[in-house]
Design goal:
mainly alpha, 117 residues
Length: 117
């Protein structure tokens, strides 16, 4: 078994990342819809909640803000189209989310998921 430092299996992290990979591709090729948007927004809410509540992730709040602003811009514009600069911010946010999943203990991550929504 391939475990991360958080005792989560690599497979579990891959399953949590799969909707984001699909959404990133859909945004990149211009076929995104509301479900892609909401998958991405939910992940960023979880990441931000982890950054707010877990002291070792506090420095990530500022790093996640460009991704949040990009998601807001896409929502305001409607049509689910991402500009290249927004796509770069979103992809950076996805990598931060992956890092949070790998570095956050399962119990803390579960608490952040419950309180983020």
């Amino acid at each position: 078994m391939n475990r991360t430092p958080t005792n989560m299996l690599k497979r579990e992290i891959d399953l949590m990342m799969k909707p984001l990979v699909t959404a990133s591709i859909a945004f990149r090729v211009g076929t995104a819809d509301s479900s892609h948007y909401h998958d991405m927004a939910a992940a960023f809410m979880i990441a931000m909640r982890c950054a707010e509540t877990i002291s070792r992730h506090n420095h990530l709040k500022a790093e996640l803000q460009p991704a949040g602003r990009a998601m807001c811009a896409i929502f305001d514009r409607e049509g689910w189209k991402a500009e290249p600069s927004e796509m770069a911010a979103i992809e950076e946010g996805v990598e931060i989310y992956r890092a949070i999943l790998m570095a956050t203990p399962r119990k803390m991550l579960s608490r952040a998921i419950r309180t983020a929504v």
